[in-house]
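Q: May I have one protein plus its fold?
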Amino acid sequence: MNILLIMADQFSAHALERSRSTDAHFNTPHLDRLAAASTYFSQAYTPFPLCVPARSSMVTGKYPHQLGVMSNAGLGTSAGAVPMIEPGHGPESLGHWFTSAGYDCAYAGKWHALQASATEGDGFAPIHPFGDDGLVEACTQWLSGRPATRPFLLVASFDDPHTICEFARSQPLPYGNVPTVPVGSAPPLPANFPPAPYAPSALTAEADASPRVYGTGDYTADDWRAYRAAYAALVARVDKHIGRLLDAIDLAETAVVFVSDHGDGDASHGWNQKTALYQECIRVPLLVHVPGQSSATVDTPVDGVLALLPTLCQMAGIATPSGLPCRSVLEAQPETVVVATLFDSGTKPRTTGRALIKGRYKYTVYSWGKHREQLHDLDDDPGEQRNLAVEDSSAALLEELRGELYRWAVEHGDADFLKKLVLPASAPARAHSDIFVIPY
């Protein structure tokens, strides 16, 4: 089966969901067209809300901590990680695996796992470097010029709307600036714009430590509204590119997946960009179109990015690499998804965190700071404004989810973060001693 994988960097899931009045300003007619013929996973998550770790997971099917890729700096020294070559170079990575299965594999646009553009060493024929200008033309030229004797896997990876980062810093946008919108016509602030009571202090410290990265330290309410207008314009711009790409294929004969590596804060919690474990940053859009299958919506939490490799394998009808920690999203899923993060602002100790989503509940713990434990009911409180971790009535639930995260960390060898967890009462008696055999 021919497969087209479309990626848009920093594209938040809520940009495709316009049921809330504060998100009505997004305009994505071409992705809406794809959604009408796809299965939409409304609770799809990235394993790490940052480009390089997420993309490394995407092409290998392994968690960032297993790869030792915990920042945009690339390969690191995460305890327990298996020493390895670059994520895309292994024989079981996406491009190499599909090539060995008889697919013609081509890659256009942003790679960033680890270098900016894909190379032949990543298992793909690189047909267009990092950059959105000319990307669609390169894809359509490759599609029209290739022989039809073998199936293809084509990846079209757009940079927008990631260029909202340049907008926040008042820098020129690489593919052209977006029109300025009068404040009165700009989107309203999201309902969860104000920092919530009992918010984690670590995030405030990280924003203060990197003002030149975020660029929003002195933002007024009007500035944030302008930011939301610009982000929506960038979403609309990449949607037009995607529309031209969809016009070049036959949906009746080509499977299509649309996904992002992570989202954007988009003013929620007064946050922009990624890295934080807020829903706006970690939840990603995931559309899976399989020819002949009806559209549907799946509301179960899924590893939308981590599971991309096994999902594409199932769609193609080929074997899946052995030893992957999750399976295709087209199969029944476990209830629990875990997302990791690490801030690389240069301050020590570095802020790390994990979020565990189980059904309607989300348990988040950061490595330090006041209110580092967060517990939210995503059904009743999707904006994460009420931290149940400070309420005695939720003590049993909090303890249960502490146990879930502890068991996950042990099972998946997340040795570094075991030292940052709040251990549940159900942990073995020697758990603390075993974790801190090496104190630091």
In short: Residues 21 and 188 are 9 Å apart (CA to CA).
